Amino acid sequence: MVKKVGIGAVCSAPLRYMRPLRVIQTKHPQIVGTPRIEQLLALRKELKRLNKRLQVCIVFRHDDFPNEEIYCHERFCRVEVESPTAQLFGDIEADEDVEVVEEEEPTDELPAEVQPHSVGVDDRFLLRNDGFNVDDDRDPAPENIPVPGETLNDQQTWGWGGRCHRKVFGAADDKPKLIQLTDSESKLMTILSLFHCLFPATYLDEVLLAEINRNLDKEKARRIGLGEFLRFLGLWYYMATFKGVTRAQFWSTKDIDPYSGALIRFHKMMSKQRFDLILKSLRYTNRLAPAYKDKFHGIRQLIEAWNDNMIKKFRPSWVSCLDESMSPWTTRWT
């Protein structure tokens, strides 16, 4: 039997659909996955403006939000403990006689980090509920739709016509170069000095090592320095050159077998317990999680630091060969 909602009913609902956001974000700045908020005490049924439309919502009180009222669309509400029959909510409709409570949500634009990415069905629904216009028209542009009976132009040619268009427009034939270093100085650099040049040193010291040490302190373990971190990173790089070998096999106590397992042991360079502890303590950002869902939050600061440092230290050649990119094709005409 379906339980009905009324005054005093105990309900639950998906946390991501609860409003207003300014209240929800005080306790949950970033919602990961699909958690539900429990022990919602139903107060009333009310029309609120969601996605610029009047929609029927259930208003609640919750212990996590004292002196605040939170709500969600009625279809997301699940009744756990039904209220007395006499206090069940009746049906309401959007008409001129109903008092409308306007949605008081911030009208700021989406953060720049999430503007370029494509959104799925759930994301579009959330954006609409937050008051954003979402264009989900997936039909092809009229000029791209083939006309029935139209003959194809099969006289076109594809390929290189013998001219470099970049040179035609005055692009210089620049070679890749480390900025502020002569060619002779660049040739004298070792692998280690080249790593120090291209890896963002300030980020390494102030963010990466600081966050690792903060987590090591929680484990009451010895702090890590630059030298030990480079050793840890070097072991990772070396392990990456092997295929079909587990990480544990590099610390195996068995004799080295040329036909199976790792061909080297790391005991003299770092213990497995210490390696695993550093790996567990790795964090790539010291920023607080944003209020919106950012799947790249954990590494975005590293990417920004890397790009900023490369702009200062390295100039690519005038022609760059990039790895292929596989693009999804959703319709025949996109």
Salient structural properties:
alpha+beta, two-stranded antiparallel sheet, extended
Q: In percent, how helical is the residue content?
A: 25-40%
Structural class: alpha+beta
Sheet with most strands = 5 strands, antiparallel
The span between the termini is 48 Å
- What is the number of helices? 9
Strand order of the largest sheet: 4-3-2-1-5
Organism: Nitzschia inconspicua
InterPro entries: PGBD (IPR029526)
Protein name: Transposase IS4
Give structural notes.
It is a single chain. Helix content is 27%, strand content 12%. The protein starts with 9 loop residues before the first strand and ends in a 19-residue tail after the last strand. The strands form two sheets. A five-stranded antiparallel β-sheet has the order 4-3-2-1-5, with no helix packed on it. Strands 6-7 form a two-stranded antiparallel sheet. It has 334 residues and is an alpha+beta fold. Among the domains are: 10-87, no CATH class; 194-289 and 298-315, no CATH class. A hairpin with an 8-residue loop joins strand 3 (53-61) and strand 4 (70-73).
Briefly, what is this?
By secondary structure, this protein is α+β, with helices and mostly antiparallel strands. The protein is 27% helix and 12% strand.
Topology:
Elements: E1 10-14, H1 21-24, E2 36-50, E3 53-61, E4 70-73, E5 78-81, H2 121-129, H3 165-168, E6 177-178, H4 183-187, H5 191-198, H6 201-218, H7 226-239, H8 272-281, H9 297-313, E7 314-315
Domain PiggyBac transposable element-derived protein: 193-332
InterPro entries: PGBD
Protein name: Transposase IS4
